[in-house]
Specification:
Layout lengths: L2 H10 L1 H14 L6 E4 L2 E4 H72 L5 H29 L7 E4 L1 H12 L10 E5 L9 E4 H17 L7 E7 L3 E8 L6 H4 L21 H11 L3 E7 L3 E9 L4
Parallel strand pairs: 4-6
Antiparallel strand pairs: 1-2, 3-5, 6-7, 7-9, 8-9
Helix pairs in contact: 1-3, 2-3, 3-4, 5-6, 6-8
């Protein structure tokens, strides 16, 4: 039973408590024990207890009925969401299965054509474009299935060092072409105390933070600076990935993290629009949240808030 329902039940018993108080006052001879109504002598103690019991009982019945309705609605909503999730997962499996063979055939055909001696530059360029789009489509399907597969049951939960996770994410992100060792600066709180362990799936957390860092690198100039900062705040872990890139248009901010959505000024960069959706899902599976703040032409800060494991 929720605290809200418990508090309301206590208030529902207030008439009964007042009735008992009134009986105590009658017993203390502050009021008459009986009142005359016409030809009848009414016992005030019995009348008071009867009325207060009836009122409290009515209030309790109303509260429990409302609580049951709300509980039934919550269960119905949860059941509908579970059905939608299963249907979406089945659709992703089906899509992956149906697309895998045609895409493999297309890519093999393109490879065979590229292996031939082609003297026409236009034909070579066309084959390269087709191959790139086929690879992009295959990556999109794989990412959509991976996103559909994310759930708590598939997570490998353990205590992890956030510093190690961020270092691995930064190392993997630095492998992007054209990025030197100074492109990403990592700062993890050490004083006045180091960060507490974080409980979660290490591999998924690495994927989430790597996606954020790679996004920051992708939409920044090659000379731009990326900062990754991890601190503790009131039993929460805050991880910020900040860049000095192109920023996000204000009208696009509310849709960031929506599957397949890409900001208007991001169309010139390769991507599927699933990266941030995957980050959001991973963070939510760890009972956290992600916030995006951005100024067009100045940069973006992606802030991940996660619960801290208290020793």
């Amino acid at each position: 039973m929720s605290k809200s329902v418990s508090h309301r039940l206590i208030l529902a018993l207030l008439p009964l408590f007042l009735g008992i108080l009134f009986v105590f006052l009658i017993k203390s001879n502050l009021f008459e024990n009986y009142v005359v109504l016409g030809h009848f002598h009414v016992d005030l103690i019995a009348l008071c207890l009867l009325i207060s019991c009836i009122l409290s009982l009515c209030f309790v019945i109303i509260i429990l009925t409302q609580s049951k309705k709300k509980s039934d609605q919550d269960r119905k909503i949860a059941h509908e969401r579970e059905i939608q999730s299963l249907e979406r997962q089945r659709f992703m499996y089906r899509l992956d299965h149906e697309m895998k063979n045609p895409l493999t055939t297309i890519r093999l055909g393109i490879t065979n054509l590229q292996d031939r001696q082609v003297n026409d530059p236009d034909e070579t360029e066309t084959l390269n474009r087709i191959g790139y789009q086929a690879q992009r489509l295959q990556t999109l399907v794989e990412d959509m299935r991976r996103l559909a597969d994310l759930d708590e049951a598939s997570m490998d939960i353990e205590d992890n060092s956030l510093a190690d996770i961020l270092e691995e994410a930064v190392t993997q992100s630095r492998s992007l072409p054209g990025r030197d060792q100074s492109s990403v600066q990592l700062t993890v709180q050490e004083v006045p105390w180091p960060l507490a362990p974080i409980r979660g799936d290490r591999d998924l957390l690495v994927i989430a933070f790597r996606n954020l860092i790679e996004n920051a690198l992708k939409f920044s100039e090659s000379s731009g600076q990326i900062e990754v900062r991890a601190t503790e705040d009131n039993h929460r872990i805050l991880v910020e990935v900040a860049d000095s890139g192109r920023g996000i248009p204000p009208e696009d901010l509310q849709y960031i993290g929506t599957e397949l959505y890409r900001a208007k000024n991001a169309q010139d960069q390769p991507g599927s629009g699933l990266g941030l959706a995957m980050v959001k899902r991973i963070v939510e599976l760890h009972h956290g949240r992600i916030e995006i703040n951005s100024r067009l032409g100045q940069g973006t800060v992606a802030r991940v808030v996660l619960p801290m494991k208290v020793s």
